[in-house]
Amino acid sequence: MIEILTVCTGNVCRSALAEMVLGSRLADLGVRVHSAGSGALVGDPLTPQTAELALAAGARPGEVEAHRARLLTEGVAAEADLVLAMTREHRRAVVELNPALLRRTFTVREFARLAAGMSDHEIAQAAQGSDPQKRVRAALRVLATRHGIVGPAEDPAADDVVDPYRQKDAVYQQQARQLLPALDEVERFVRAAVQPQHAVG
Questions:
Q1: CA distance readout (Å), 69 to 30, 41, 64
Q2: Is pLDDT above 80 for 153?
């Protein structure tokens, strides 16, 4: 099974929203998406605004209701094939916990920026083997090399997702505008890696 981990601070807003939405979108591939927080509000549910956004974006109601925040630990991170951090700070926290995750840990917007330059066909070509997990990991290794081609974002903050916790609804909406299009790219990348027969041009 392919494992994707999303990471933020409290695990009640950004990473939880990413988990719910991406998990729903990739359920047909058997991908498991889970989340954690570097300073998690352990045991807390989603904030009401996050729950509303998640449902509007297609998350499954039962999972939205059941979510409880959990702490990012080395054990939680260890099994992930892909780690999507909400900010550069969270990415650094993951890699410090487990340096072996360096080449498969990205901020979610950084991932989208790098993946946007790869066609479905290129992703499928990068994915080697018949095992879906190995294919995704192989494609991610190629994606990681694109740092040298694409270069850093002009504004480093453009790779981060804003933290809406205890902020106004407008900040929650800003978070969604930053996060959801990035998840579109994640879904496209994983599908092209797992299902090469559907990859085109």
A1: 23, 6, 12
A2: no
